[in-house]
Amino acid sequence: MASCAAMRRLEAGVSFARRHQYVGAALVIGCMVAIFFSPIVRYGATFSTVENFQRSLYPWYDPADRDPPPLAVQGDQAVFIYPRQVFLHRSLTEDGRVPLWNPLSFAGHPFLADTSIGFAYPPRLALNWLLEPSWAHDLYVMAHLFAAGMAMFALLKEFGSGFAGALLAGVAWSFSSYGVAWMMLELVGPMLALLPLALLLIHRWHRRRSLRDLLAAGGVLGVLFLGASAEISLLSFLTSAGYAAALSGRDLVSHWSEMSRRQRAGQALAPVVLVGVGVAVAAVALLPFVGFRAASSRTHSDYATLQRAGPVHLRTFVRVLAPPDTPLDLGSLATEQLFVGTLTGVLAVVGFALRRPGAGLGRGLVVVTALYLLRTPVTWVGYHLVPGLKGLDGFWRASFVFDLGVALLGGLGLNALLAGTVSLLARARRDRPSPSGALARALVPGLLGAVCVVATGWQLLSYGRGANPPFQERDAARLFPSTPVIDQARAALGPGPGRGRLLAMTIRGLPPALPLATGMALDLPMADGYEPLMSRHSTALWRVVQGESLASARSRIPYTFGTAFTPSGLRTDLLPRLGVQQVLAPPELATDPGWQGRALAGRGLRPTYSGPDGILYEVDGALPRAFTVTAAEWVRSDDEALRRFADPSFDARASVLISGEPPVGGAGASTAPVEASSGVEWRSDQPDRLRMTVRASQPSWLVLLDTWEPGWKATVNGRERPVRRADFSFRAVQVPAGTSDVSLSYRPIELAAGAGVSLVAMTAVALALSWPFLRRRAGRGGRTTTSAPSPSRPPGGHRDDGS
Question: The whole model's pTM is what?
Answer without folding.
Answer: 0.89
